[in-house]
Structure formats: C-alpha cells, structure tokens
Amino acid sequence: MTVYCVDTSALIAAWQERYPIENFPRFWERLDAFIAEGCLVSPDEVLRETGKRSDELHAWLKVRGSMFRELAEPIQIEAAQVLARFPRLVGERKLRTSADPFVIALAKVEGLPILTEEKPTGNTNRPNIPDVCSALGVRTMSLLEVIRAERWVVG
C-alpha cells in the first residue's frame, strides 16, 4: 500500500479544474476511501491553505481530518532545512504559499512521494515543489499518475 503526501495544488486542481464533484462523484468517493485507508496524508498547513482558496473543498476536507498531520518537531526541523536551502520556495509572488515546505518536509521525513500538480520551473531562484524535490531526492507524481498507479476506474 503506497501512501502519498498531497499538496494543495493537486486538491485544488481536482476540485476546481479536472474532477468537479458534481461531474465526477465517483472520483471523490474513491478519494474518500483512499483517505479512510490512510493512503493520502498532508500537513495541517494544506487544510489551512485550502480554506483560503475554496470554501467548498475546505469543508469537504475538514470532515476528513484524519488525513492531516500536525507539524511534529521532525517535520518542523526538516521544513526549516528545506527553507534554508531554498528560501525562495515561499515568497511574495501570487499563489506562493506557506504549505509547500511542510509538504516537502512531511514527505521527506516519512519517505512518501508527493502528489502535486505544480510543474518544475527549472530555476532555484523561483522553485516549485518539483524543483526542490528533485534536488532532495523526493519523488513527485501528478493526479493522473496516481490514478494510473492505483488502477482507479472512476467513470
């Protein structure tokens, strides 16, 4: 059983762009079961971040609180190390958020792949999650890659 650490971008992309719940209810039923099985985790910061981006998604996730991990000391230490090496991961640019270093830290501490829809920038001065993960040896996957890896049929 693979456990994935999910980033806000993947949740927002699924909810708003790729698999709206009103059009793809089976996808969300499958994701709900995946969460219940303990296969999808995320730091608390992702829940906070979704609250700023989508009230409906935030409400859906809040009921599934078991997927969210508190920022235990090893995660905080790792996040600080990530930010020391990649200070521009969190910045003032629009959509640059505070959850990214904690997502990376949780994945690194627990040895998990990250489910993200961010694309690499190829620029360490403006890195996205895939850029940092590539440098740290953490695997990233897209929604579609996870759906294929888990052999979900939701249609």
CATH H-level homologous superfamily name = 5'-nuclease
Largest pleated sheet: 5 strands, parallel
- Spatial sequence of strands, sheet with the most strands: 3-2-1-4-5
**Regions with pLDDT < 50 over 5+ consecutive residues?**
none
- The assigned CATH architecture is 3-Layer(aba) Sandwich
Strand tally? 5
Q: Compute the separation of the termini in Å.
A: 23 Å
Helix count equals 8
- Structural category: alpha/beta
The portion of residues forming beta strands comes to 5-15%
Radius of gyration: 15 Å
Quick recap of the structure?
With 155 residues, the chain is α/β, with parallel strands linked by helices. Helix content is 52%, strand content 8%.
List the helices and strands and how they pair.
Elements: E1 4-6, H1 8-18, H2 25-36, E2 40-43, H3 44-53, H4 55-62, E3 68-69, H5 73-85, H6 100-110, E4 114-115, H7 129-136, E5 140-141, H8 143-149
Parallel strand pairs: 1-2, 1-4, 2-3, 4-5
Helix pairs in contact: 3-4, 5-6, 6-7
Describe the protein's architecture and organization.
This protein has 155 residues and is an alpha/beta fold. It has a single domain (4-149), classed as Rossmann fold. Helix content is 52%, strand content 8%. It has helices spanning 8-18, 25-36, 44-53, 55-62, 73-85, 100-110, 129-136, 143-149, and strands at 4-6, 40-43, 68-69, 114-115, 140-141. It has a five-stranded parallel β-sheet with strand order 3-2-1-4-5. The two termini are 23 Å apart. The mean pLDDT is 92.
Notable traits:
155 residues; alpha/beta; Rossmann fold; 5-stranded parallel beta sheet; 8 helices; 52% helix; globular
